[in-house]
């Protein structure tokens, strides 16, 4: 199966529900490595299943560690007591920093010959500070490509017995984590001094807590130095559970804060060892209502209804802070996120990526070496007429963050959505379960069935927007006529469809700045529309234009393929029809009212001619290969042959009410 190029998130009205979080990436990969280095067998429960944990699992297996999948996210790891059975191996570790850095440290202090590489981006992420510390301890590490960056070649260490090494703390906390996790492999005591301000301190807390669970207590002097005493050895704790991922929780909490809520996440809470749970405090500062228990958190919108901007040092929540940058789109004022220099050396240059994509959503963004400042557009959260396409830079957090933008009531397209697999493979499925899309009522049916009138009246009663999709095909036919484009010149017509400027204002319709008159409703125009509508490229070109009509609070759309193609997720689907004879009569009356009747032939002959036309058009609309007129599964039939317009409208509204009760 090939990965989809993009996912379209429909405009969203609200978020509400409960999500059970997948396991934490940071904890999963630490536990896997510690279990492998331990004496004894460890059973790990609730392990995260993702690209990054797969990198660690594959790496450990390549090193000869027995890792057995028990099903239901449980694994049994047989520890190798600090000595990997395989002494010569090449490891490919993707873009998983939580696998690459600690494995580098552990293998560098071991006795073997190894090569470690990753994806191109991994080879751009610095590692010199870690390598420097390891070399001081006697490691033999060579850069295979660029000095200071992976890939690396490691030969057996000639241990120096050095008792003090230093490592920089201000580039990535993973360097310190990696060193600390590897030190119990040595026989002597080693102290690590941290140079510069240590960033992402909560991740060091996770490291220390996990090492303690495996029997190694690190002595520390605040955040300045850490000592692993001689004789420290990892011992399996037997069974260990992985907490839910607090960084992943941020997207759902943010959804609750933006989209009314409440959204509840289960798997992390106040008892968590992960620093990113503090994201909830940041949301509270923005006005969100937060509740929390040991193992759960819940967010809902501010009582005032409006989130406020904030100015925050984000050193303690580097990953979850990205989510705040998108929440800033929904907040009053300018949000400044400070002390986030580490964003620049993550999966991508996150400061730059975030700034670029936020600008697509109309925000004014200032980007600094270690900060980002976001001001939503002055007119509130406004998006262009069609969904903006968000690029994700092979960064799972970009994809997850920007899914929240759809809560602005206009859909977003997320490119390369598969990148979420790094930490949260089924993110979009979980997201879809807690959000409520702007509702669509799709009314499809044949020509002259009265669906347009019924749809328009239903929309007015519900206070919803209305889309007359047939008008787009008719407008294209008119535009083709004006530009002298033949009705079967597919690519030219598609080009025209993509560029025509259409505007609906009440019952008035504008094409390229000119108001369109009754010619749009003529039989001739309908016949031309039916011809251009068979062309697949034309239909594709009109797709986004039609979807752009879906806006809060809702949409009633009529046409032929509303339920099947344009809004397959429509909450209510109606197939509205009437006998061909009834339709011919209705069309005749309509034309007479507009003074466009075929008077010269007399009424009987006119109706007969209309009946013939209608049958021909039915045939063409239902037999064409793309998006044929059909009653799709899930669409309820509404035969209006014996109904008045008012009765038909009431029936549609009754179905809407029933649907809403079912959804509750
Ligand atoms: O609904 P209408 O009569 O305005 O439609 C005009 C033509 O456009 C009709 O022949 C079928 C085509 N059409 C379509 O193919 N798909 C739609 N969603 C709407 C109309």
Question: In summary, what is this structure?
Answer:
By secondary structure, the chain is α/β, with parallel strands linked by helices.
What do you see in this structure?
By secondary structure, this protein is an alpha/beta fold. The chain folds into four domains: about 5-20 and about 245-435, Enolpyruvate transferase domain (UDP-n-acetylglucosamine1-carboxyvinyl-transferase, Chain); about 25-240, Enolpyruvate transferase domain (UDP-n-acetylglucosamine1-carboxyvinyl-transferase, Chain, Alpha-beta prism), CATH 3.65.10.10; about 440-465 and about 555-664, 3-Layer(aba) Sandwich (Rossmann fold); about 470-550, no CATH class. About 35% of the residues lie in helices and about 20% in strands. A hairpin with an 8-residue loop joins strand 8 (about 140-145) and strand 9. Helix 2 packs parallel to helix 3, helix 9 (about 320-325) packs parallel to helix 11 (about 395-405) and helix 19 (about 580-595) crosses helix 20. The model has no long low-confidence stretch (mean pLDDT about 95). The protein binds 2'-deoxycytidine-5'-monophosphate.
């Amino acid at each position: 199966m090939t990965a989809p190029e993009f996912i379209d998130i429909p405009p969203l009205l609200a978020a509400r529900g409960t999500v059970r979080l997948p396991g934490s990436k940071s904890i999963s990969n630490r536990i896997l490595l510690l279990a492998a280095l331990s004496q004894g067998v460890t059973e790990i429960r609730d392990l995260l299943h993702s690209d990054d944990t797969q990198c660690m699992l594959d790496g450990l297996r390549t090193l000869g560690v027995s890792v057995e999948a028990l099903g239901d996210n449980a694994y049994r790891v047989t520890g190798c007591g600090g000595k990997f059975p395989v002494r010569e191996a090449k490891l490919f570790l993707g873009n998983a920093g939580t696998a690459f850095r600690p494995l580098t440290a552990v293998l560098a202090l071991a006795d073997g010959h190894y090569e470690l590489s990753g994806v191109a981006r991994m080879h751009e992420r610095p590692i010199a500070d870690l390598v420097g510390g390891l070399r001081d301890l006697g490691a033999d590490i060579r850069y295979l490509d660029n000095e200071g960056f992976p890939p690396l070649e490691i030969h057996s260490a000639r241990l120096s017995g050095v008792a003090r090494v230093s490592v920089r703390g201000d580039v990535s906390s993973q360097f310190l984590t990696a060193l600390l996790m590897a030190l119990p492999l040595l026989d002597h005591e080693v102290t690590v001094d941290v140079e510069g301000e240590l960033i992402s301190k909560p991740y060091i807390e996770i490291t220390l807590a996990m090492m303690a669970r495996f029997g190694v207590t690190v002595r520390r002097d605040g955040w300045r130095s850490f000592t692993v005493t001689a004789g420290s050895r990892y011992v399996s704790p037997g069974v260990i559970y992985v907490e839910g991922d607090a960084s992943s929780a941020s997207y759902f909490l943010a959804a609750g804060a933006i989209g009314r809520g409440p959204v509840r996440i289960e798997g992390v809470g106040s008892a968590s060892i992960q620093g990113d749970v503090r994201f909830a405090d940041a949301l509270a500062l923005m006005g969100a209502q937060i509740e929390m228990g040991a193992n759960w958190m819940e967010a809902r919108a501010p009582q005032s209804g409006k989130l406020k901007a904030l100015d925050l040092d984000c050193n303690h929540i580097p990953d979850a802070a990205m989510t705040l940058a998108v929440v800033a789109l929904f907040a009053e004022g300018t949000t400044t996120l400070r002390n986030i220099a580490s964003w620049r050396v993550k999966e991508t240059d996150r400061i730059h990526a975030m700034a670029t994509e936020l600008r697509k959503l109309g925000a004014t963004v200032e980007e600094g070496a270690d900060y980002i400042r976001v001001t939503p557009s002055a007119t509130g959260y406004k998006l262009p007429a069609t969904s903006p396409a968000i690029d994700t830079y092979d960064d799972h957090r970009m994809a997850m963050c920007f899914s929240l933008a759809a809560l602005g009531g206009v859909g977003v397209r997320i490119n390369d959505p598969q990148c979420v697999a790094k930490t949260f493979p089924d993110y979009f499925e979980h997201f879809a379960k807690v959000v409520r899309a702007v509702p669509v009522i799709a009314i499809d049916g044949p020509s002259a069935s009265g669906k347009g009138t019924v749809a328009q009246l239903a929309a007015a009663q519900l206070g919803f927007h209305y889309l007359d999709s047939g008008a787009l095909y008719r407008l294209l036919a008119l535009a083709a006529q004006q530009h002298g484009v033949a009705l079967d010149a597919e690519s030219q017509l598609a080009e025209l469809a993509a560029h025509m400027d259409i505007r609906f204002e009440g019952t008035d319709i504008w094409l390229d700045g000119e108001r369109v008159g009754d010619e749009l409703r003529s039989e001739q125009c309908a016949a031309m529309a039916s011809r251009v509508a068979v062309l697949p490229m034309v239909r594709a070109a009109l797709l986004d234009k039609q979807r752009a009509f879906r806006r809060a609070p809702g949409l009633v759309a009529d046409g032929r393929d509303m339920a099947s193609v344009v809004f397959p997720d429509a909450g209510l689907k109606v197939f509205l029809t009437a006998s061909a004879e009834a339709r011919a009569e209705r069309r005749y009356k309509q034309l007479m009212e507009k003074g466009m009747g075929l008077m010269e032939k007399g009424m009987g002959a006119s109706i007969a001619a209309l009946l013939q036309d209608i049958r021909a058009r039915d045939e063409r609309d239902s037999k064409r290969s793309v998006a044929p007129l059909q009653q799709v599964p899930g669409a309820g039939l509404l035969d209006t042959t014996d109904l008045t317009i008012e009765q038909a409208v009431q029936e549609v509204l009754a179905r809407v009410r029933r649907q809403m009760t079912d959804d509750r």
